[in-house]
């Protein structure tokens, strides 16, 4: 009996330690303004219609059409904050060069996916959006974390729009916890495995099970929607009411599931349909309307 009681006590302590490790920042942040929007992944892009990802055109289109947007930040060699997902421009520009090894002047000479759009500065992106819709700002882990965070915040000084920050790198999320606790911050996560981003097996286990949250105390967990069925995420939602952000939603079916869970949705390759009976529009029709300066409906249908 004593052995059983000891085992039960150890088990209870382990559960409490686990809950402490995965807990978000409390009290819970107010997400009511963020929940009014869906978020276009890297802007409202469609390269088949001449709108590259993470381009000023994609961000402007998202804002005009009433969508929030997700974007990616990193630094050039001369420490300019630019908006681009990959650490190189091979996929987006066809040139095998790393952004961290190019100056802004050199990078600005390349165009995205055969368009006339270049890799934008963060400052250009902020000016183009002008606070019209919310931003989910991902800071990439390619550069010195503290430097990227500090320079990004310098760009955001005086910006009047709604935004939050997120990162896969716990050092970045922790930087915001320590230096700007007033800013809503999130931990990006997927089912990490050994070797991903140079992680050991143990590091990947702790990461994918959200057990770095004790260091960062994020306000939300942005988990890969197709890998979200893990005990830690469900426990954090049920016990602490943690806000979940779903990425990347690519079908109407997944969109409906994520919305039913109360999640913020980051989408691409389709256009979320409104719940009203408004007339649906295609991406090309939205693009045409934006070009005329018209206000786009968010009730749209995919052309794909």
UniProtKB/TrEMBL annotation:
InterPro entries: GP_PDE_dom, PLC-like_Pdiesterase_TIM-brl
Residue span, GP-PDE domain: 36-278
GO BP: any one term: lipid metabolic process
Record-linked SUPFAM superfamilies: PLC-like phosphodiesterases
Molecular-function GO term, any one: phosphoric diester hydrolase activity
Origin superkingdom: Bacteria
Coiled coil: none
Protein's UniProt name: Glycerophosphodiester phosphodiesterase
Native source organism of the sequence: Candidatus Acutalibacter pullistercoris
């Amino acid at each position: 009996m004593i052995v059983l009681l000891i085992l039960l006590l150890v088990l209870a302590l382990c559960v409490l330690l686990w809950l402490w490790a995965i807990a978000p920042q409390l009290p819970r942040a107010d997400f009511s303004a963020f929940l009014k929007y869906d978020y276009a992944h890297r802007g409202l892009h469609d390269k088949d219609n001449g709108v590259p990802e993470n381009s000023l055109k994609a961000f402007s289109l998202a804002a005009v059409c009433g969508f929030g947007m997700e974007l990616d930040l990193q630094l050039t060699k001369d420490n300019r904050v630019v908006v681009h997902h990959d650490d190189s421009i091979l996929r987006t520009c066809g040139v095998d060069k790393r952004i961290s090894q190019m100056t802004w002047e050199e990078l600005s000479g390349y165009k995205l996916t055969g368009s006339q759009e270049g890799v934008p500065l963060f400052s250009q992106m902020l000016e183009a959006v002008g606070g019209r819709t919310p931003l989910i700002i991902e800071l990439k882990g390619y550069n010195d974390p503290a430097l990227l965070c500090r320079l990004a915040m310098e760009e955001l000084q005086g910006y009047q729009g709604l935004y939050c920050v997120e990162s896969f790198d716990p050092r970045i999320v922790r930087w915001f916890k320590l230096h700007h606790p007033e800013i809503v911050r999130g931990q990006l996560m997927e089912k990490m495995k050994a070797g991903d981003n140079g992680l050991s097996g143990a590091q990947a286990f702790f990461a994918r099970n959200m057990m770095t949250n004790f260091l960062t105390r994020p306000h939300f967990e942005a988990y890969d929607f197709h890998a979200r069925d893990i005990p830690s995420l469900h426990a954090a939602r049920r016990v602490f009411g943690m806000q979940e952000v779903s990425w990347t939603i690519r079908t109407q079916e997944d969109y409906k599931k994520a919305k039913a869970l109360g999640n913020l949705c980051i989408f691409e390759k389709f256009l979320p349909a409104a719940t009203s009976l408004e007339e649906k529009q295609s991406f090309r029709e939205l693009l045409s309307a934006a070009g005329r300066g018209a206000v786009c409906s968010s009730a749209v249908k995919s052309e794909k």
